[in-house]
Amino acid sequence: MKIEVPVGWEVTTLGDVAGWGSGGTPSRRNPEFFNGSIPWIKTGELGDKFIRGTEEHISEDAIKKSSAKIFAAGSVGIAMYGATIGKLSIFGIDASTNQACAVAKPLCDLLSNEFLYYYLLSERRALIDSGKGGAQPNISQGILKDWPLSLPPLNEQHRIVAKIETLFSELDKGIESLKTAREQLKVYHQALLKHAFEGKLTAQWREQNRDKLETPEQLLARIKQERQARYQQQLKDWQVAVKVWEKNGKEGKKPGKPSQHKELPPITEDEIALLPVLPSSWGYARLAEISKIGSGMSVSKDRKLSDPVDVAYLRVANVQRGELVLEEIKRMPIEKQALPELALEKWDILFNEGGDRDKLGRGWIWEGQVEPCITQNHVFRSSPYFASEFHSKFISHWGNTFGKDYFEKGGKQTTNLASINKTVLSMFPVPLPSIEEQEMVIRALDDSMSLIGSLEAEVESSIAKCETLRQSILKKAFSGQLVPQDANDEPASALLARIHSERAGRSPVKTRVKE
């Protein structure tokens, strides 16, 4: 299909307007090869418009004894394969490259290197797609040399580059402002959480309801009553289960006796000194005082089960900070008898046990999205004795903000991973306002965070639109719609004819634009 181009332009190929080559990697077994002064570009260093320095330098001997070669400043390099495929830069220095880099030296009186750079940038996705089909995508030199180019006159190329850079500069300023706004929203988000747990979001409401609110001591006493009542019920259920087991000839494993709650040491003054100052009507309690802490089941293909049931389970990857990512939930078989003890309940609070140190303890609440569902052994759960959406969100928000330092300090580091144990989680201090005030705090947080989320989405959408506009600018540039044509420009056909004639060793044919 014939490509329509503006007057003065000519359809050609990248191989016609530039000389192409690639580099090489000298042997690492000879350290002297990498002890020279010649810049050696790896494709991972491509990306900025100009590259003016490199991490490594090679020697002249390395050039002589390998496929590496020196390319002149002004050449344009593009990564042909690997993780950096399609990344490109103009060489601001004479440099050598590795073999994954294709290098074009534009014919100076025919093609602007900056024009070529922006053209390759506009074609990057199409070039990558054209290289698919093998074990890994590869933009070969053959593909690059045969790639079509609508070539404008040289003067118009310079005008196009100048216009692109003016428009891109304006776009970059806009994107920078949007990114600044995004960072400000993050700062506001953190300030909002800080104010929430300092009692500032509910100060007026608290003052108006001072005489109606339960004290931390009263709330803890009620929680203790509820905890003891549950334990007594568990004992009764266990006694019934044992009788059934005995009646069935003691077949299978004997039901395990429920464990009694272990009293925890009071929170010390030293611990409180590291925590935010709370309103006078709030207090601190340990997480295991107000909830039951449980762990999950390890994944094992070798586990022998007498009565298996296949259940969904949450991994560390599912439990993010402030959200659950449930697009991919895995399953495992467990003993059916163990399911009631392991199954998540609505409003359980999830905490990650291991991973990178700064991710210890991150988590969010369970809302019963999948039934039944358990956790892997690397995810803890906290089941509040007074379970509710507001109470669980209050504790989880606290864990994701002020709890980060606590979990980082309490974590144990191995070679690759850090982890917290059940004791560290059980001893975690959490603020304890009245249940009613917890609800008010979360309602205020939800409203403000919903607004922040909407603003963040608008910012991200605007940034995406800017990037789309960038591609639109490039598309217009290389179809002749970005700057006007000038009839006085020497047409591209004359430039091409001159180059072809010089290559053939004869004088070029002079041409001019028809009017």
Distance between the termini: 26 Å
State the shape: elongated
What do the pLDDT scores average to?
A: 92
The CATH topology of the domain at 10-153 and 485-504 comes to Adenine-n6-DNA-methyltransferase TaqI, Chain A, domain 2
Low-confidence stretches: 506-515
Major β-sheet strand ordering: 2-9-6-7-4
CATH class group of the domain at 10-153 and 485-504: Alpha Beta
What does this structure look like?
This protein is α+β, with helices and mostly antiparallel strands and 515 residues long. Among the domains are: 10-153 and 485-504, Alpha-Beta Complex (Adenine-n6-DNA-methyltransferase TaqI, Chain A, domain 2), CATH 3.90.220.20; 282-433, DNA methylase specificity domains (Adenine-n6-DNA-methyltransferase TaqI, Chain A, domain 2, Alpha-Beta Complex). It contains 15 helices and 23 strands. It has helices at residues 14-17, 60-64, 113-130, 141-146, 154-197, 203-208, 216-247, 269-273, 287-290, 339-342, 389-400, 403-410, 422-426, 435-477, 492-504; strands spanning 10-13, 18-22, 38-41, 50-51, 56-58, 76-79, 88-91, 96-97, 101-106, 148-151, 283-286, 291-294, 308-314, 319-320, 323-324, 330-335, 349-352, 354-355, 373-375, 379-384, 412-413, 418-419, 429-432. The protein has a five-stranded mixed beta sheet. A hairpin with a 2-residue loop joins strand 14 (319-320) and strand 15. The longest helix is centred in the middle third of the chain and has 44 residues, at 154-197. The protein is elongated. The chain starts with 9 loop residues before the first strand and ends in an 11-residue tail after the last helix. The relative contact order is 0.12. Residues 506-515 have low confidence and may be disordered.
